C-alpha cells in the first residue's frame, strides 16, 4: 500500500531534515512499499559485470549511513548508493541545513557530510549482505572536514567498504566541505585515484568519480583525461550546483548550499553530454540531476548515461515515482525502436564514437 498521498500534507508541514530522518527511519523499520525492481527485460542493463534489473537508482545523500538499504531498493530502484560516508563520524553543519524550494521543485542543502563514519556503514552493509541481500549497492566516499589528507581519507573508505560495494564513488564535488571541489583538479584527482586504487581489496569494485556541475572548460578536459588515463571505471554527473539559475521563485533560493531538483536537469544533462563526447563514449556515465519523469531519465540516457539516479523528485512526488519512471522508460525505448537501454545510450550524440559501436 502506498501511504505517501496520506502522509504528504503532514510531511510538508514538518522541517525537511526531520522529514528526511523520519522517512529513513520508517523505511528502515519496514514501513515502506515492498516492490521488486522493475524487471521488464528491455530495462536490463549489464555494467561492470553486474546485472541491473533497471537503470534507475537512488542517488547519494538519502541513505547517508546505510540504514535503509533493502527498503530503498524495495521502492523499485535497480540500485542504491549509500553515503557520503566519512572515515570518522562527524556532525556536519549546524541546522537548519536543508531547504525545500517547493515552487521550483528544488532543494538546497548544506548538510556538510554529517556521517556516522565508515565503521557504522561497513557494519550495516555487511549485515545486509549476511542477511542474503543481493541488491546492487554503490558506496559514496567523502572526507572528514578537519582532515588534511583527503587522499588518505578516501583510501580509508575504500579499504573499509570496497569489499562489499558494487561500486565505489570518490565524491569530490559536494559544495559544503571547504576545499573539496578543488580536488577535481588534475594533479589532486589523479593522486587520489592512485591512492584509492592501492587501498582497494581484491577483487576490486569499479571506481567512479562524482563531479560538480560547475566546472570550467579546462576542468572538464583535465578530468576527462584523468578519467581515461588513471583510469576510472565511470563518472557520476552531477552533484548539486552552487549557481542559482534565473527564475527561481522560492523564498529560500538564496540560502547557501547545493541546489538540486528541476532547475538542475538542463545544466547537468548538458554536462553529461559534454563528458560523453570528451570521453568518446568509452566510459560508463551515471546521469543525475533533476530527474522527475521517464522523459527526463530517457533524456539522460540519450545524452550518454548508462545509469540514471534521482533524489529530489522523491521529496516532491513520493516513492510511487520510481515505478512510474521505469514503466514509462520501457515505453519510450520501445516507441523509438531501441532493444535495450544500452542501445539508446548517447543516441543524441555522435554514435560513431560510442562504446556500443566499437
Ligand atoms: C539533501 C541532499 C543531500 C545530499 N547528499 C549528498 C551526499 O552526501 N553525497 C553526494 O555525493 N551527493 C549528495 N547529494 C546530491 C545527490 O546525490 C544528487 O547528485 C543531486 O541531488 C542531484 O540529483 P537530484 O536533482 O535528483 O536530487 C545530496 C542531495 C540532497 C538533495
Folded structure, characterized:
The protein has helices spanning 4-13, 16-28, 69-73, 117-130, 150-161, 186-199, 217-229, 265-278, 294-303, 312-317, 320-335, 341-344, and strands at residues 45-47, 50-52, 56-58, 79-85, 98-101, 106-109, 137-141, 167-171, 207-211, 234-237, 258-261, 285-288, 307-310. The protein has 358 residues and is of the alpha/beta class. The strands form three sheets. An eight-stranded parallel β-barrel has the order 3-4-7-8-9-10-12-13, surrounded by five helices. A three-stranded antiparallel β-sheet has the order 5-6-11, with no helix packed on it. The chain has a two-stranded antiparallel ribbon with strand order 1-2. The protein is globular, with a radius of gyration of 19 Å. It starts with a helix and ends in a 14-residue tail after the last helix. Residues 351-358 have low confidence and may be disordered.
Write the layout of secondary structure elements.
Layout: H1 4-13, H2 16-28, E1 45-47, E2 50-52, E3 56-58, H3 69-73, E4 79-85, E5 98-101, E6 106-109, H4 117-130, E7 137-141, H5 150-161, E8 167-171, H6 186-199, E9 207-211, H7 217-229, E10 234-237, E11 258-261, H8 265-278, E12 285-288, H9 294-303, E13 307-310, H10 312-317, H11 320-335, H12 341-344
Parallel strand pairs: 3-4, 3-13, 4-7, 7-8, 8-9, 9-10, 10-12, 12-13
Antiparallel strand pairs: 1-2, 5-6, 6-11
The structure holds flavin mononucleotide (FMN).
Amino acid at each position: 500500500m502506498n501511504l505517501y498521498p496520506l502522509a504528504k500534507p503532514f510531511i510538508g508541514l514538518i522541517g525537511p531534515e526531520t522529514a528526511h530522518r523520519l522517512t529513513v527511519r520508517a523505511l528502515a523499520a519496514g514501513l515502506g512499499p515492498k516492490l521488486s525492481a522493475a524487471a521488464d527485460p528491455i530495462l536490463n542493463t549489464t555494467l561492470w559485470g553486474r546485472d541491473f534489473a533497471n537503470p534507475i537508482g537512488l542517488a547519494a545523500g538519502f541513505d547517508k549511513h546505510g540504514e535503509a538499504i533493502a527498503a530503498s531498493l524495495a521502492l523499485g530502484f535497480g540500485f542504491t548508493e549509500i553515503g557520503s560516508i566519512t572515515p570518522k563520524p562527524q556532525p556536519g553543519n549546524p541546522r537548519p541545513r536543508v531547504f525545500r524550494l517547493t515552487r521550483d521543485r528544488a532543494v538546497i542543502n548544506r548538510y556538510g557530510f554529517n556521517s556516522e563514519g565508515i565503521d557504522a556503514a561497513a557494519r550495516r552493509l555487511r549485515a545486509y549482505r549476511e542477511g542474503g541481500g543481493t541488491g546492487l549497492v554503490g558506496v559514496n566516499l567523502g572526507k572528514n572536514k578537519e582532515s588534511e589528507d583527503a587522499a588518505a581519507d578516501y583510501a580509508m573508505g575504500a579499504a573499509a567498504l570496497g569489499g562489499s560495494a558494487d561500486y565505489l564513488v570518490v565524491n569530490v564535488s559536494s559544495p559544503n566541505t571547504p576545499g573539496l571541489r578543488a580536488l577535481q583538479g588534475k594533479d589532486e584527482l589523479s593522486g587520489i585515484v592512485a591512492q584509492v586504487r592501492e587501498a582497494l581489496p581484491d577483487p576490486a569494485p569499479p571506481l567512479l568519480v562524482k563531479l560538480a556541475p560547475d566546472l570550467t572548460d579546462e576542468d572538464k578536459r583535465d578530468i576527462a583525461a584523468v578519467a581515461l588515463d588513471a583510469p576510472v571505471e565511470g563518472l557520476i554527473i552531477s552533484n548539486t550546483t552552487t549557481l542559482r539559475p534565473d527564475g527561481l521563485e522560492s523564498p529560500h533560493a538564496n540560502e547557501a548550499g547545493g541546489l538540486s531538483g528541476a532547475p538542475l536537469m538542463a545544466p547537468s544533462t548538458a554536462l553529461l553530454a559534454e563528458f560523453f563526447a570528451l570521453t568518446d563514449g568509452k566510459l560508463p556515465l551515471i546521469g543525475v540531476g533533476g530527474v522527475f519523469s521517464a522523459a527526463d531519465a530517457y533524456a539522460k540516457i540519450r545524452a550518454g548515461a548508462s545509469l540514471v539516479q534521482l533524489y529530489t523528485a522523491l521529496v516532491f512526488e513520493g516513492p510511487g515515482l520510481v515505478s512510474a519512471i521505469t514503466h514509462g522508460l520501457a515505453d519510450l525505448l520501445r516507441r523509438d525502436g531501441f532493444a535495450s537501454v544500452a542501445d539508446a545510450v548517447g543516441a543524441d550524440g555522435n554514435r560513431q564514437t560510442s562504446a556500443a559501436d566499437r
